[in-house]
Amino acid sequence: IQLETDLRTALEQEQFVLHYQPIVAATSGRVVGAEALIRWNHPRRGMVAPGEFIEVAEDCGLIVPIGEWALREAVRQSCAWREAGQSPLRIAVNVSGVQFREPGLPEIVRTLLPEGEGRAQLMLEITESVLMDGSEEAESRMREIRDYGIAYALDDFGTGFSSLSYLKRFPVDVVKIDRSFVRDCPDDHSDASLVEAIINMAHSLDLSVTAEGVESVEQRDFLRDLGCDFLQGYLIGKPLSPLEFAAFARANAP
Ligand code: G
Ligand code: G
Ligand code: MN
Ligand code: NA
């Protein structure tokens, strides 16, 4: 209850910030975008990680306005970078299932997108569970939002229970291989085979693949050689403040 009250205050007083973890093309190492990750800049506790408040925010419904704030902030920041001369970046924002099912989401997305040239390349990261419950509705909702030019990444891929047929049915653009499968690559043969199978399967459905949790040069080379499209992880860069990310993007521009 105290946390809920504090989260309301955090929204009102704009205590949330977004950090940006770089995503690069596997073959060139050039930056293609980032995953926006929320932090709570708490007046006493300092930077609070999402693991400590997202679940509570989902339970009490505050994830809806918090998630809306994150979408707005990501679009604002990405337009600011564009205006500062940065090459276009695809910014991926995590959307919780609770927020995805909210009837107002398509309208929110529509109104926050700028018109014309500076249009933000926004991507929504959803998990397999979003596709599973109420899938008819999820499908039409995905298509409605996609018509505004938004792309989708399927987060934590492989950890859920969705069947491969979901990938064919829903308008997903990118599959993100969960970092638990990347961790023991390339030494663990079953994980290595699994990662290879996900990449090949995604490609045969015309989807791109991002590997998460890339921490070593061996993992990077292994994934690149399998044809994985994009890489994300501590080897590439940890989640960075907006200023730090801008410097990273300049240094690794296409
Ligand atoms: O930043 P960190 O590595 O601690 O992120 C932990 C988890 O918090 C991630 O799995 C991510 O999905 C979730 N998360 C981060 N930012 C957001 C956000 O803006 N909205 C939602 N719903 N989840 C987020
Ligand atoms: O949305 P998702 O659940 O994928 O959230 C990404 C989380 O993974 C963030 O909390 C981020 O800090 C964390 N993360 C990002 N890169 C790495 C990595 O290379 N190794 C590990 N262990 N965690 C990572
Ligand atoms: Mn994510
Ligand atoms: Na993930």
From TrEMBL:
<protein>
    <submittedName>
        <fullName>EAL domain-containing protein</fullName>
    </submittedName>
</protein>
<feature type="domain" description="EAL">
    <location>
        <begin position="1"/>
        <end position="253"/>
    </location>
</feature>
